[in-house]
TrEMBL record:
This is Fe2OG dioxygenase domain-containing protein. Belongs to the iron/ascorbate-dependent oxidoreductase family. Keywords: Iron, Metal-binding, Oxidoreductase. Pfam families: 2OG-FeII_Oxy, DIOX_N. Residues 237-338 form the Fe2OG dioxygenase domain.
Amino acid sequence: MDFASTSEPPFEKAYRTLFVDKQDESIKPHLFNQVLDDGDVDDDDKKCELPLIDISQLNDYNKERCLECKREIVRASKEWGFFQVVNHGISREVLVKTREEQVKLFRQPFESKTKEISRSRLDVKKMMSGSITNSISSSTDGSCSSNNKVEMKKSIFGDDIYRWGAPTATSLDHFSWSEAFHIPLSSYGAASHPQFKDLRFTMEEFAMKVSSLAERIVEILAESLGHGPEFFKENCLPNTCYLRLNRYPPCPLPSQVFGLMPHTDSDFLTVLYQDHVGGLQLVKNGSWITIKPNPDVLVINIGDLFQAWSNDVYKSIEHRVIANRQVERYSAAYFYCPSYDTVIRSCVEPPIYRDFNFKEYREQVQEDVRAVGYKVGLLRFLQ
Ligand SMILES: O=C(O)CCC(=O)C(=O)O
Ligand SMILES: [Fe+2]
């Protein structure tokens, strides 16, 4: 049997009602025109504008060069909420190995990635009462949920680890043509199985390297607001962070459906490694800008928690992934998160947002995704 018939999530079958009558792409205005009321997709010239920062300069014996590098990071976090880093200290070998293991993981048969559980009345009752909320929870970005509404699934890789599609989507523009392993670094789920030994080692190495990069950047951003790194060191521990391995299968309707719908990340900071295919876009001045793939860079973006903590000094920017008709795409994201009980309080007066803890934030995101199909985010927490 070929890869497609065994490993691909059955998007069109499971979400039949969303896809019905959508086969002829000419019958509907293209999705990108529908959602881009306030801007346009970028032209090629704009692709290179996203700041590219050589962070090896942070170790430069020349103090001025090191300070200038910090200033670039701060400026990009305020003006773009996104930047790319080069000479980041994570070897090509680690990145290549990460990708290889990621590919192997997604090549598991779909049935191994998910495992049907019976929709007994008990399960439905539990689901309704919220006691198995994991089964319908959304990811850290609120854009992609764990289990399919149509066929309740429970992953053999661990609860709530494998996600595909968008269970709460009521229209195609709330849908994501992608699958993901959302791996809390406290447990490697699938990776603890002997079959996935290499995966575990590789992910641990990737996470360890990327987390020290995230810590360094967060420290620089906190310092610029007159704070030390203590708050982050105390609350964002390796076991409170997440890895998310994304795969975007070739999509027959790339102009009708996103690879990943527009969202902001719900963490402090995200570090992303994308492959050569491209499709990641962010909003800048009302336009969508494409982040050109580059094997030497990692993409960094500010998440909602940092925007709240910095009182809107640093920006959590909406981003999305465009689906591709011909080729599959992979990315690996590291989400720098605090423990659930960490209270997020603005470090600048007067605060724009009320105090909230991370658990409250995630629950609100999940509730909104369920109720309205998308994440409302920080607007829910205005003073
Ligand atoms: O795949 C990408 O390039 C972006 C992934 C992303 O935004 C996410 O996982 O939150
Ligand atoms: Fe994201």
